[in-house]
Design a protein that fits this description.
- The protein is α+β, with helices and mostly antiparallel strands.
- It folds into four domains: 49 residues; 83 residues; 73 residues, GMP Synthetase, Chain A, domain 3, CATH 3.30.300; 92 residues, no CATH class.
- Helices cover 30% and strands 26% of the residues.
- A six-stranded antiparallel beta sheet has the order 7-3-4-6-1-8, with no helix packed on it. It has a three-stranded mixed beta sheet with strand order 9-10-11, covered by helices on one side.
- A hairpin with a 5-residue loop joins β9 and β10.
- The longest helix is centred in the N-terminal third of the chain and has 25 residues.
- It is extended, with a radius of gyration of 29 Å.
Length: 368
């Protein structure tokens, strides 16, 4: 991190100069290079500089902008904002029985289902199939925390692990989503910074962003809007630009509708981010002086384009900006870049840009 704050001067040369000149003034004679006493003072200056460096580091760890790891966690805990640990993916399982019953059929809490016999989802509450009905939808979560449980499409989780009487079939009716690894440090830092907004009960912009993100660590951006007086609409963006499932939207609504957080006059609506699609069509050349690195640069260019796609869809309202794409490709070694698509496009604050088709073509070596 640049422009680090220093509480004490830890420049070795300045410290050494100060020690030597002070000694010479007190002793009344000059310490020439190679003098054993001067060599001793130089070693002492190194120790003092190291100690001052530790003082600066310790001081910076008390500041939100610079704090790292455990120091950042302590600042967050003081603000009442613990770091999100790994969290499991969630979905909704539909259990169906073989025939209608004259009594309620219970689906026990903890009933597991799987798609592949490796990743399992367990119900988080007891389900009951009413008299005269054949099925019930029950919320469930992955038994392993992290992103590993994300992305199972409706119908893929369809194998029962803990069958119960009259069981016939099971399937997930929503895509599994919300699983996350340990919260990213910079995202956590920003959440701590926004936490003071959470104390307000007036419904400010930042407060709704803060509380909405508390619903899931997989939420990376929120855009609160008020389309009409008395209505607050929250647009939700998930990690990697994904659209939130209904389970995530319901979780956000539950958090933001709490009577201690939502102003009495606000009607809260939670919506998935709106998607704007674009295509990428890029031609690029490599300097003939870099011929030996041509394959390396080509691989780097494709990675730069992938990084651009991720950057573009990691924030709501981020305009489609081909100059950013050009910069990233040039940075990794391309001599000349021709971007046919995308064109600069203004994106509204509740929208996110998602690339659909991509064509990145190497045009060969080129001289000056």
């Amino acid at each position: 991190m640049t422009d680090l704050i220093k509480f004490v001067d830890d420049d070795v040369q300045k410290i050494e100069s100060n020690i030597v000149t002070t000694y010479e003034a007190l002793a009344g004679y000059t310490l020439y290079p190679g003098d054993p006493r001067r060599l001793f003072l130089q070693a002492l200056a190194q120790i003092i500089a190291h100690q001052r460096s530790l003082i600066n580091y310790t001081g910076r760890q008390n500041l939100l902008r610079y704090a790292e790891e455990d120091y950042l966690k302590v600042i967050g805990e003081d603000q009442g904002v613990p770091q999100f640990g790994p969290s499991p993916a969630k979905t909704t399982l539909r259990f169906t029985i073989s025939r209608v019953q004259q009594s309620v059929v219970t689906v026990p809490k903890g009933t597991r289902a799987t798609a592949d016999g490796k990743i399992f989802f367990a119900t988080t509450e007891t389900g009951e199939i009413p008299i005269g009905e054949l099925s019930v939808d029950v919320p469930a979560e992955c038994t392993v925390s992290g992103e590993i449980g994300n992305g199972f499409l409706p119908g893929q989780i369809n194998r029962i692990v803990d069958p119960f009487p009259l069981f016939q079939s099971v399937m997930n009716v929503t895509e599994s989503q919300g699983g996350a690894d340990l919260e990213d440090t910079e995202i956590y830092r920003e959440r701590i910074r926004q936490s003071n907004e959470g104390y307000s009960t007036a419904g400010p912009y930042e407060a709704y962003k803060y509380w909405a993100k508390m619903a899931s660590p997989a939420i990376i951006d929120v855009e609160p809007m008020s389309p009409v007086p008395g209505v607050v609409q929250l647009w939700i963006l998930m990690k990697n630009g994904e659209s939130p499932t209904q389970d995530i939207l319901d979780a956000v609504l539950e958090v933001c509708s709490d009577r201690t957080k939502r102003p009495l006059t606000d009607n809260v609506i939670v919506s998935a981010r709106e998607e704007v699609n674009y295509d990428i069509e890029v031609l690029y050349w490599i300097d003939e002086n870099d011929a030996a690195r041509a394959l390396e640069i080509q691989n780097a260019v494709h990675q730069a384009v992938a990084d651009y796609e991720l950057w573009q869809k990691s924030k709501l309202g981020r305009d489609i900006d081909p100059s950013e794409l050009n910069y990233r490709i040039k940075q990794v070694g391309a001599k000349r870049v021709q971007i046919n698509l995308p064109a600069y496009t203004k994106i509204e604050s509740h929208q996110v840009a998602i690339a659909i088709n991509k064509n990145v073509s190497y045009q060969g070596l080129e001289g000056e």
